[in-house]
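Changelog entry: the Chemosensory protein A 29a record was regenerated in this release. Current contents:
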Amino acid sequence: MWHCELKVFLILWTVSQVYIPCWGKKFISRFESINGIEGEKETLFTCSVRLVGRERMLNGSIMHQVDLDDSFDVWMDILHFKNGEWAQGNIKVRTKPCDWFTNYFGKYFLPLVKDSNLPPIQEMCVFPKGEYYLRITKIEPQNWPPILYRGLNQFNINYVRDGKSTGGIQFVIDLEDSTL
Ligand SMILES: *[C@@H]1O[C@H](CO)[C@@H](O)[C@H](O)[C@H]1NC(C)=O
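Regenerated structure tokens:
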């Protein structure tokens, strides 16, 4: 099931980038919130990042108590706000940490981060335990997939072991098309 969803997602993502190069490539974004997600039984990954200033820049750190190796799965669900409530969106990813950090995080998020001790993309499999800071980082999404909804998107990223979340990150970001 998730294989199928992931494939459809990747195909849409690729198609949209190849065939519609000037549609939705640039977003205007605004962070509304960012929080850690508590694990169900234990929390191995925590996030203490705050939004600072009018520009809502990210400042803080994430703490990984263990290596994120193949014994974990990464689940990403994106909900969107519609008719006054959060609804499951069209993006649901179930994958392994190496794929997650290389093909999603490393591609779409890491390039936006300028001042941080996050490991380079080549050193994210296995993603080593440790504390990683982000300093006053403005997230200006570039090349994010145009299939993302405009409006409020709630990203839920969980690091899962044996079917149970062991912590993660949730953030809400408002996305609009750039008219430029
Ligand atoms: C950013 O975080 C660092 C470390 O936690 C803190 O010392 C600094 O005051 C923060 N900056 C702002 C603008 O909140």
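The CA atoms of residues 59 and 136 lie 5 Å apart.
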